[in-house]
Amino acid sequence: MRESTALLTDKYELTMLQASLRDGTAHRRCAFEVFGRRLPNERRYGVVAGTARVIDALARFRFTEEQLSTLDFLDGATLDYLRDYRFGGDVDGYREGELYFPASPILTVRGTFAECVILETLILSILNADSAVASAAARMVTAADGRPIIEMGSRRTQEQAAVTAARAAYLAGFDATSNLEAAKAYGIPASGTAAHSWTLLHTGADGTPDEAAAFRAQVEALGVDTTLLVDTYDITAGVATAIEVAGPELGAVRIDSGDLGVLARQVRRQLDGLGAHNTRIVVSSDLDEFAIAALRAEPVDAYGVGTTVVTGSGAPTAGLVYKLVEVDGVPVAKRSRDKRSHGGAKAAVRACRRSGTAVEEVAYPLGAEPPEVGTLEATPLTVPMIRGGEPVAGLPDLEASREHLAAALVTLPWEGLALSRDEPVLSVRFDRV
Amino acid sequence: MRESTALLTDKYELTMLQASLRDGTAHRRCAFEVFGRRLPNERRYGVVAGTARVIDALARFRFTEEQLSTLDFLDGATLDYLRDYRFGGDVDGYREGELYFPASPILTVRGTFAECVILETLILSILNADSAVASAAARMVTAADGRPIIEMGSRRTQEQAAVTAARAAYLAGFDATSNLEAAKAYGIPASGTAAHSWTLLHTGADGTPDEAAAFRAQVEALGVDTTLLVDTYDITAGVATAIEVAGPELGAVRIDSGDLGVLARQVRRQLDGLGAHNTRIVVSSDLDEFAIAALRAEPVDAYGVGTTVVTGSGAPTAGLVYKLVEVDGVPVAKRSRDKRSHGGAKAAVRACRRSGTAVEEVAYPLGAEPPEVGTLEATPLTVPMIRGGEPVAGLPDLEASREHLAAALVTLPWEGLALSRDEPVLSVRFDRV
């Protein structure tokens, strides 16, 4: 078995398990639902991401003897239950790469209370992290308007989170990642240029910089199609040196500081003047979706995005919750003052005009007939993912989910792709729930 | 060997390595420095965290044949270099739990260019993530003013990041975590209460809630010292039921919604009226350092903090960078328009009054005599961590680092502990560098 995910769990889930085994409620048939109460930062839509990782993580949710030995706060019956634990229930939900809105029933987990309750933290950790990154990344892809974006934020987030953030960014339409583990684990194209340290390394014993030596060595090692970082000292001198060393067939130059719009124009003119018409300009340096959009009219060929994408551009978590919605067929919902939820296990459709434009989502009881949507067309959003503990056949891979998202974004009303703050572009109506 | 960390690396580090092996610069003696250009969100201080994890991760920075087989963009000589790679250099820096300010030389890595350059992403990922959490968490601990805080944010961050976030929060003075893997891996006390799902599970076949049954089962399974979650339906009824079921020796009640200050007062009165004078009140629900501070006058006994601490309370990354500062003994620094740095490998001291209050930091050449600080006392901040690739003996453990931070915070001028935005409370002066 690959690494166990079983301890990526909050203690209270196991103490609730113990209490439920004692009072017999452990075996009640339950449905838990993952949904978001709102979209962070008044965004117009969210992107579901991490679903395939959840399915993989559930298969590895097994307690080893070594893990069990650390759970000394549990009684013998509970430890026995965990020793044999295999999730044997069903999971249905929005496929990875689907859009979601407040109250969209993103994922529904059904089984006994015992088998479902202990999955709360793991499922939410994955979906919250991945959806946060994908939701931010999708806005950047829209802002880039067809120009490629490279994810290079590994250094600004936890070392393992970097790997899954690269995956989520790629799902959302990024073209490549700097992260080698993500390239290996998920088959994402890896990309990279050079660091300022590379140029600084080529400093003489008397402290004299030798940018030309750095560029020459890079071109010799990596070929003329490489990307030279030209802003370590003076950008104009850096560009001149780059073309002098590499010739006008140089692949690209990267600018990583300063007013990127002004510099891109200046560098483009300089490159063209040197006959390097095909040399691309890559820009980086604290880019977010707004900065990317602001560069739309500039001669920029590709963006490198780091910090903002891996931290969700101001919304580092999607804020999704995992709530019990049904017990033995009876809908349940808590009634705390400021946190309400709809009871009952749900499926959903998205109602679209014949033109393809989405109008609303409609949630209805899981397993019931889909709702009537008049002259609109109802696209099913809820698909089976796990049956009796086993993943269903034919679940989409990362490429398929990436294409699904790209297609889904096209169905949004135009204002849905605006970067400004506003209400969600679609709302969820409840039918029979 | 435990799991390899070698691919938690950006591609460009390996292509720079290849270029340096070809042009012979790979073996130049270099010093790279980790520092922050500024503190996020105009905070007054930062907390160094993750250092022990860096040291552990470097020991596991070994390329397996399987990993090497995925690096098809490298030539044979580079692959051979990686196959034999062991970091053999030196690391010095601020100990874990130390305070830092803009330009503090937090970590200095010395060795050949080749052996140092490929560690950039891994070192920064760890320090940026852990320091972001610890820096936010330390402010929450100050705001809590001695009342315990439980970290329970696992579900709001990536599943592995949750484990290390729990560690960073504990380092900063949190008392416990909900995360079981963190408890196992780092020996942090685990804690937990119950979820709303537990109460909702106890719903009759006709949909009638039975909060009393939920509370009774929890007390029977976990003892009367447990914490009952009283806000699933009506809080006043919930508190009454809790004491009715558990008696006035109930450990605690938790409130997870609503105006926590108002509710805490109301619940305290109610508990006292029921004779439950020792029953504690635990509050949670989107608490950050400001909300914690605002509850200081209320009868709250403990805080549960989730989202904000694991996401750095608005600053999910510390923004630390890893820059080449010295080549073959010559200081180097880039001169891009908006990103300047000081060349040369550095150590630092903190100058304090005899009363213990810190006045400034002074950075000076690593290995040189410490600077004169007049009538002040100079506390060394830079300590050796790795020598010739091996960790030095006697490095502090997590508990020691936690105590170190608590003691360091006491040395700050009073305004350093204010939560409001302002300049860093100490600045770094450069002496001979």
Automatic annotation (TrEMBL), chains A, B:
One GO MF term attached to the UniProt entry: glycosyltransferase activity
Query: Keyword Ligase on this protein?
Result: yes
Keywords annotated in UniProt: Glycosyltransferase, Ligase, Phosphoprotein, Pyridine nucleotide biosynthesis, Transferase
Q: What is its EC number?
A: 6.3.4.21
| Domain Nicotinate/nicotinamide phosphoribosyltransferase positions | 150-339
| A cellular component annotation (GO) from this entry | cytosol
Q: Which reaction does it catalyse?
A: 5-phospho-alpha-D-ribose 1-diphosphate + nicotinate + ATP + H2O = nicotinate beta-D-ribonucleotide + ADP + phosphate + diphosphate
| Keyword Ligase attached | yes
A Pfam family found in this protein is NAPRTase
Check the record and name the InterPro entries matching this protein: Aldolase_TIM, N/Namide_PRibTrfase, NAPRTase_N, Nic_PRibTrfase-Fam, Nic_PRibTrfase_pncB, Nicotinate_pribotase-like_C
Q: Which GO terms describe its biological process?
A: NAD+ biosynthetic process via the salvage pathway
Residue limits of the Nicotinate phosphoribosyltransferase N-terminal domain? 7-128
Q: Which domain of life is it from?
A: Bacteria
Q: In which pathway does it act?
A: Cofactor biosynthesis; NAD(+) biosynthesis; nicotinate D-ribonucleotide from nicotinate: step 1/1
Entry PTM: Transiently phosphorylated on a His residue during the reaction cycle. Phosphorylation strongly increases the affinity for substrates and increases the rate of nicotinate D-ribonucleotide production. Dephosphorylation regenerates the low-affinity form of the enzyme, leading to product release.
Family from the record: Belongs to the NAPRTase family.
> What is the protein's known function?
Catalyzes the first step in the biosynthesis of NAD from nicotinic acid, the ATP-dependent synthesis of beta-nicotinate D-ribonucleotide from nicotinate and 5-phospho-D-ribose 1-phosphate.
Report the protein name in the record: Nicotinate phosphoribosyltransferase
Species name: Corynebacterium sphenisci DSM 44792
